[in-house]
Amino acid sequence: MSLSFEINSRSGNARGGRLITPHAEIETPVFMPVGTVASVKGVPQDTLEELGAQIILGNTYHLYLRPGVDTVRKLGGLHGFMSWRRAILTDSGGFQVFSLNELRKVSEEGVTFRSHLDGSSHFFSPESAMEAQIGLGADIIMAFDECTEYPADQARMRASMEMTARWAARSKKYFEEHKSEVPWGAASEIPTLAAKIAARMAHPPSLSHAGSGDATQSLFGIVQGGMDRALRKESAERTIEIGFPGYAIGGLSVGEPRELTREIVESTLEHLPKDKPRDRRGVGTPEEIVEYASLGVDMMDCVLPTRAARHGLLFTSEGKVSIKQARYAQDAGPLDANCGCRVCNRYSRAYLRHLYASNEVLAQVLNTIHNLSFYLDTMRRVRHSISLGEESRFLSSVWSRPKP
Ligand SMILES: [Zn+2]
């Protein structure tokens, strides 16, 4: 068994459930911290565990360029390489390649693009994107898709959606033929301490649901269709027809107004199977993750909490705090009196402001730990509200939570 998903509670359209992958049991809806290059910037893996992160994200495009899939594969996949026992999801690389704009060239075969690191030329096809993701060895991987730009005319949106459907079929075919090559046991070829650690990480003995060793990765399909509801519906139907254990709603947050994003997500969700996990990339502010959970999205990720933290922007139960402001210079209080994280338990706003003003690396570390804690905690409260059937309450609970 490689993936199972069960829904335990509902509140309106929101679902509370449990997603079981070979490396972790994940309560949903879940927020997934982003570890672009096999690192959640500034936060060590043991701290992520302490924060309760059950699944993190890696970016195929970045890891493919550096350190390279072969290196990661030889070191036991991402689990072994970065010493992470819990679940990992990788994206297909499609969105990142899309963001390169003028550096890419798209054909039926795939996408030629230039590295943002050194300008070298590379090629991703559905097959090579699968090969890369199998080598990286995440629990959940994504079909290779084309992210349609915004704005785009009807003909362009249709052509792009149809190509994504063809690429989804090619992705699945390659995955089915090669999924046994996942490197969860491969590290034993390398007689080093790193290999032993990698092997242990790849097969955590505590997880009985990892099964008899035949558990492997799960490939999710991605729905495209631009900003057109009918094309989204058709894309959902065609992707479901190919058949995947979970579905992502792609091609959003590409410059469209926020209201339109919500509308497209809401209408797309109607066409996705009720009993399969639904993933939505690049959400968002704390209000947005709550909002999307209320619509019935089960999995979300975003660089916002980590990126904002590095710029001194902190999310708290009383709203956003820009810690660089002089008003905090002598503020002895905690960053967030309602937060139980190790930063709020130990340090004052004055100290955090000083670290930021002094450009200390520790400022980035502590700020990121708090922001991730806030996001993970927000999702924990959302799950709790769903389990109690309190639809109306959790929507308003982001900035106004009671003291524990
Ligand atoms: Zn905190």
Q: What does this entry look like structurally?
A:
This protein is α/β, with parallel strands linked by helices and 404 residues long. It is built from 16 helices and 16 strands. It has helices at residues 45-51, 60-65, 69-74, 77-82, 94-99, 126-136, 154-178, 193-202, 229-242, 258-269, 286-295, 304-310, 342-346, 349-357, 361-387, 391-395, and strands at 4-11, 14-21, 24-28, 30-32, 55-58, 87-90, 104-106, 111-114, 121-124, 140-142, 218-223, 247-249, 278-280, 299-301, 313-316, 319-322. A six-stranded parallel sheet has the order 4-14-13-12-11-10. Strands 1-2-3 form a three-stranded antiparallel sheet. A three-stranded antiparallel sheet has the order 7-8-9. A hairpin with a 6-residue loop joins β8 and β9. The chain is globular, with a radius of gyration of 21 Å. Mean pLDDT is 91; it is low at 205-212. Zinc ion (ZN) is lined by residues 335-336, 339, 341, 343-344, 370, 373.
